[in-house]
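Model it.
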Amino acid sequence: MTIQDDSGATPTVVVARRVIAGQEENFRDWDRRIRAAAGPFPGYLGSDVQPPDDSHPGEWVTVYSFASAAELDEWLSSEERAALIAESDRFVEGPIREQRVAALRTAPDPVTVVWSQRIARQNHDAFVALHDDVLGRLQTVEGFLASDLLPPVDGIQDDYVIVSAFASRAALDGWLVSEDRRAWVEQIEHLVEGERTMNVVGGFGGWFPALPTRPEGPKRWKQSIAVLIALFPTTLTISLIRGEIAPNMNVVVSVFIGNVLGVIALSYVLMPRVTRWLGAWLNR
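Modeled.
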């Protein structure tokens, strides 16, 4: 089985809804409230909402990421979420499409497409073989970045989920209409039980989750404070360690090494935790 490295992956739910015409502003306000309600829950990493566009015409897509499957489940089954979901009946029409992904990498890829399909146990090997074949073809497609095959996880994710990232919407569209993809879909059709689901969303990631009323994220002054909280101890620690280990290091080399270590520490260690700790405040 070909499965990409899932380091940095997080349990995620992708929810697609159709909003009643004329209710968009009410939905925005409701979406802001439900995502703010998720903020205080343990393990919350971030969320994003994307209005309808060419990627998902007519649908508003919301993405929530949590540090663990148990913490994601706690939010999804919470009374707070259930009460807010009941309110959305006034703004939403038709069925809600919800995809739970056991481990979705949150790298800032420009365009990500998520496929879900139910595969019978006896068809597992055939499906994996076809996936490996199409992945080999994808490696030659211009704009293709990465793909993960996420098998079912008991109690968390019932379907086989494929998450593929492309450098642009044009690159994804080229693949979606290609002869290779058409042939692959035909080959797996007899292996799939029920409907196949596809959601296209923008990149996940960035230090700060976007708000529906502020696509750029939280207020700039709040972002600055959050970065300062993480940046000051990082810079101080690196400077103290460098002073002990190499007090006479060339200043240019010193600054370069400090910046590299600082960016790594902020991006992969500190900022995810700081934005989680300050989530409710950042989203107000």
